[in-house]
Amino acid sequence: MPMLERSNPLPLYYQLKEVLKQQIRAGHLAPHTAIPSEPELVARYRVSRATVRQALTELVHEGLLYRQHGKGTFVCEPRVQQTLSELTSLSEDIRRRGKQPGGLLLVSELVRGSETVRERLRLLDEEQAIRLVRVRTADEVPIAYEVDYLPYPRATGIYQRAKELGEGSLYSMMASEGLTPYIAEQNVKAALPSAREAELLRIPPDEPGLRVTCTTFDQTGSPIAYSEVFYPGSRYEYMVTLRVARS
Amino acid sequence: MPMLERSNPLPLYYQLKEVLKQQIRAGHLAPHTAIPSEPELVARYRVSRATVRQALTELVHEGLLYRQHGKGTFVCEPRVQQTLSELTSLSEDIRRRGKQPGGLLLVSELVRGSETVRERLRLLDEEQAIRLVRVRTADEVPIAYEVDYLPYPRATGIYQRAKELGEGSLYSMMASEGLTPYIAEQNVKAALPSAREAELLRIPPDEPGLRVTCTTFDQTGSPIAYSEVFYPGSRYEYMVTLRVARS
DNA sequence: CAGTGGTCTAGACCACTTC
DNA sequence: AAGTGGTCTAGACCACTGG
What we know:
Two copies of one chain form a homodimer. The first copy, chain A, is of the alpha+beta class. In chain A, 29% of the residues lie in helices and 30% in strands. Chain A has nine helices and nine strands. In chain A, strands 3-4-5-8-7-6 form a six-stranded antiparallel β-sheet. A two-stranded antiparallel sheet of chain A has the order 1-2. Chain A is elongated. Strand 9 (238-243) of chain A pairs antiparallel with strand 6 of chain B, so a sheet runs across the interface.
């Protein structure tokens, strides 16, 4: 049985979380079965109950466990476990469907941006936006035309590293630049492709698809990205998972 | 200044949450301003720090507050505050856009259900599904054709109360029947309406729209509803808000 | 340095479930 | 009655931020 290391700089509750996560992932704890009770975990790992509860509470929030008063703490089904994190990364989504994500960066430039862009990013008069244009692919097939806008002074690092963005995830690059996505608002419409989109995606100009606009905010509610993506209807089913209610 | 009541059956941390929520909503605590520090709250409300922290941690999870180590705890922007709860209720969404939600229940019946339905709801051989068909309206204009399926033995109460479903929220009715939505998976496609949909929504048969399928699960990962909704492209912009990353 | 939040302890009592 | 999770206390020490 793995133990917690008091010499480890990682907090005890965090180590306990990792141990439990691993046991769940490895299948030692099956869905709908009870994990050891809180007093048992206290004894087994020699930590206080508050520490155990912090670990369990976070795992509950992450969708790995659920509690029932008087009965115990149980393992959630894998579907719930998976659906709680990082859902708008297109690369991840493609990989999850068993295909190879790829992409081509067509444009990276500094622009003033349309009124919509400036409004979404809350740009001040003198501020500019970084504009990135990409065609995204799954197993080499083009499945989306994506235009991203980022606030310029804040996201300077992204502009410098834009070349790496062929297949890479913009979100992960943003996170490494201190722009951590926390909330996203997505607006989805049925629409026809523009001439340019039809050409680049190699679809007929009358094939309807989805136009998804997405504004991403950090923890404090400041906008850190705005994107417009066109998905041809025949190529990609747009999937979203969200929490319906909470607390 | 409001105080916490030790005679109140509601927990102290919960009362504290409500007090802070109300101060935020009333504008006494503006976005990006710091709330009183934890030791201050301890003194002011005469509770232990663990109690204060439980209240604050939950408010952070609900998107009302964010913390910065060494600096303080701050109020999130309203956009983040609003976007964390109950997002798939169409009625709520319509109301948020300043229109009056309404609806008409066309069908409520027990059916065996298609393979898709049975699979999504994980029905056993002998189990049936409740099928509800509704036209949803905003300011009397039809904006969506919705078909819901619920697992029959579990959702008996819904079947009996189906008549109330004109304008009411199915989710809130489900919650009152012990079927609490926790996670939803949504799949969105661009599509043309069926003949029946075009007729009921009074749109041309060649006007593309969105076909959204949604499977809803409870806390434990058991499916509690499956729905298929058609939104005509010209009438409604489909809006989704989700958390991108967490913990 | 003082003040903030982050982690942790060792208790206590309560409410709910099961037998 | 025994076991579970839910709430609460009164401390402690640490890590990070700012002047």
